[in-house]
């Protein structure tokens, strides 16, 4: 049988919707997924390993990669670059492994432009009230910042049309089960399996 290539899955959604929680639970239950390792120019922290936590680069190296279109997405936070390396993702997919990327909405839209064959999943809050409660309950942001995040979330929800699937995160277990079902159904799509079955038919005829 022809080896099936892996699929890039992108989980995205507004800040505070619980992307990290869903991704962690999913990885506890799914051993065959590969987490997309990001690239950064920030200093390595004690205990971090290059190629495990991040791929560490200098500013010059990172900017060269941007110029060569070697990043599926990138952004700058507090004077440090962060991004998703195209080469790592493509090499992992070639091995037949699925790659999973958890990212903010702006980053996901960049990935869509650079890698449209990815599968884009939008994690949706049960309501804006619930989203506000989650952000407030973190206890890390001022009232002004909470309002800014909610305004941003409203804008991000309007970008939902760019995604293939929408999963409401009303319950982590339910959300994870839906994401797993999406992964399974993508592997069963006719366009993905057709190549394998055509090869089987050719082998049987010859």
Structure description:
With 206 residues, the protein is an alpha/beta fold. It has a domain at 8-36 and 97-205: Rossmann fold. 47% of the residues lie in helices and 20% in strands. It contains eight helices and nine strands. The chain has helices at residues 19-29, 59-67, 86-94, 105-114, 128-138, 143-157, 172-187, 190-205; strands spanning 8-12, 33-35, 39-40, 55-56, 71-77, 80-85, 98-103, 119-124, 165-168. The strands form two sheets. Strands 2-7-1-8-9 form a five-stranded parallel beta sheet, sandwiched between helices. Helix 1 packs across helix 7. The longest helix has 16 residues, at 172-187. The model has no long low-confidence stretch (mean pLDDT 89).
């Amino acid at each position: 049988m022809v080896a099936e290539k892996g699929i890039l899955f992108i989980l995205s959604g507004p800040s505070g919707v619980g992307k990290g929680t869903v991704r962690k639970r999913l990885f506890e239950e799914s051993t065959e997924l590969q987490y997309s390792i990001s690239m950064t120019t920030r200093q390595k922290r004690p205990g971090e390993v290059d190629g495990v936590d991040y791929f560490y680069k200098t500013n010059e190296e990172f900017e060269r990669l941007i110029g060569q279109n070697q990043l599926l997405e990138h952004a700058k936070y507090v004077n440090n670059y962060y991004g998703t390396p195209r080469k790592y993702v493509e090499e992992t997919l070639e091995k037949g492994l699925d790659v999973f990327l958890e990212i903010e909405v702006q980053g996901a839209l960049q990935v869509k432009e650079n890698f449209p064959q990815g599968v884009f999943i939008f994690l949706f809050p049960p309501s804006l009230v619930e989203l506000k409660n989650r952000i407030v309950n973190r206890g890390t942001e001022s009232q002004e910042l909470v309002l800014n995040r909610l305004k941003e979330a409203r804008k991000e929800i309007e970008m939902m049309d760019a995604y293939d699937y929408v999963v409401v995160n009303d319950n982590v277990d339910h959300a994870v089960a839906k994401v797993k079902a999406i992964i399974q159904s993508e592997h069963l799509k006719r366009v993905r399996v057709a190549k394998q079955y055509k090869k089987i038919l050719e082998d049987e005829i010859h």
